[in-house]
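Hi,

I'm pasting everything inline rather than attaching a file, because the server keeps stripping attachments. The sequence lines come first, and each chain or strand is labelled.
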Amino acid sequence: MQRQLVERAIGGDFDAFTDLVNASASRQYAIAALILRDPDRAHDAVQDALVAAWRGLSALRDPDAWEAWLHRLTVRACYSRARQDKRRSLVELPASADFEMAGGRDEPAAFAERDRIERELGALPIDQRAVIVLHFYVGLPLTEAAMALGVPAGTAKSRLHRGLQALRLTMTPDPSLQTQVAQERPA
Amino acid sequence: MTSEHRLERLVADALLASAPVAAPSLVPDILEAARKVRRRPRWLALMTERPMRRHPDILVGSPVARTATAMLVAAIVIVMGAGALVAGGIVLKPDFGLVVQPSDPLVEATPPGPVSSESPAEPSPAPRAGLVAYNVESRKTGCPQTLGVRCGLTSAWLSNADGSGARRLFPDDNASRLVLGWSGDGSQLLYSIEDSGLVLTTAATGSVLHRFPNDALCAYPSGTKTYSPATKPGLCTGADGFALSPDASRVAFVRSSGNDANSTIVAILDIPSGNVTELDATRTINGSQRCWESPSCEGLNDMPRWSPDGTRLVFARQSMSPEPGSSWTSSAVLVIDADGTNLRRLTPEGTSAHDPSWSPDRTTVLFVMTEMLVNSDHTSVTGMRTDVYTVRSDGTDLRRLTDDGLSYLPRWTADGHVTFARGTATWLVDSNGTGLTKLGSSFADLTAAGCMACRHPLATGESRAQNLAFWQPLP
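And the predicted assembly:
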């Protein structure tokens, strides 16, 4: 079904493209918001990505690659938006009020730990955060995450490793390790 | 559950918990923005969409189409460029054009011998002329008839030595380009571009070897002021003020110096490095056009010319007439070594000489001497006589070649004769003043006479450089 929509959109059918946007916008928005940690810029990034998709859709030679390509465009748009305001993208953490929480599944005992993880995710460099989002939230295997990021699989793997190591250290009581992590982070 | 897996689970949970729901306006915003975007045609999208080179599974864009298109565009550009070069006459063939035959008696004429003790250089065979570069005055396309707007357009042209095959360089350019001369071996051509500076090109292909903007040439009074065509149009010196050395390694010119706009100095631009060296001994101060108002006026330098061996320069220095109460200019011809030493005056005190040039054997300097005709109380100029003279490069043996009072623009021929303009005609005379001959007005006639720089048949310009044609020397 999606393949047919993509084929029609490649041929210039805007209605088909509308259906594709309806099907993918929320998902891409969640990805962008998790990477950028800012709902407004996530909104802009997803809009940039899907408009770019419409502009360049006729260059997509394999309709089955639509989703992977869209991930790629979204990540690229996130990077672009992050570059426009690098300072904000690195230090701003979202207040919970900015997000409409999808859950409601939290148990009180786990909340504090997850909150710490979430905050620490926001403090990671954007390239590490992006691979974590694609791998753990979207559920892409590392090879496909690398594809969406436009980097070799080895690079994606090392970014994921570094990101997880940083998160792990936030749960480690050893202050010397935490200092080491802080020093490795970009200013 | 290992700690690693626990962490991954925590991360996944955190992401799922914090993943936001898109705002209701997102999809309409996207669709509205997409509708406004003009969709690229497939071929353009294939060419411009960034392919995923590392992951060929996602087939986006076409590197093949991109490469093929780039090669096609490059081929079209090359073909069009080559066509434009050929059509514009920029592709110069050094051996293309009328070559003066050695049997021509004018070419074979022996240059007159030296008349002073200075030993001349070994006489060299007369160079053959290949092409002719010259300037033509016209009017800029669409230029408004408004006071203060520069509408005159000087265009650079090339023709064969017989005048055939005339073609304008850069035919679509609406900025003045002024040919200033060939290198000694005819392989390079120097010209200026209005408000843009100097350009040295190869004669063979017309490709730019060096480009020197005005900022690189001029020194303005403030020392930091940059060149501004709006406030100071033209080059930092007159068109007569640039001279390419015979070996094409240097350009001599005159520029303002220090903190005085009226202070001029002869400077040498080293072409390979772009460095400019001022010849301090030539510095003049208070050289304003209203020189008579300043007792300390030392005049304005102008028209530097290289000796054939590139070791010396002659130049003119314009100042006020030394006569008390006079209000007309005087000038002198001076010579200096290229290293800035041995400055000396060649022309007698009390005379007005300018437009100097070296003889091919570098022993003699040719110039114009101007005599002002004034009223009885010396308060106004009633007329002017200009005649052609020579003087030895040591300042001796001043000779008058013409006495009609109407001769100007003298230049040496390749074989040591002298050509000059009188009215609209060009004349030829031996360097001792004998053998005066009026030349025909065609390029072929001038070529046959051995012209290396002569007033050309199409000359209508006001400056010397605009009126001169330059014959390409051939090794």
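The two ends of chain A are 47 Å apart (CA to CA).

If the labels don't parse on your end, tell me and I'll reformat.
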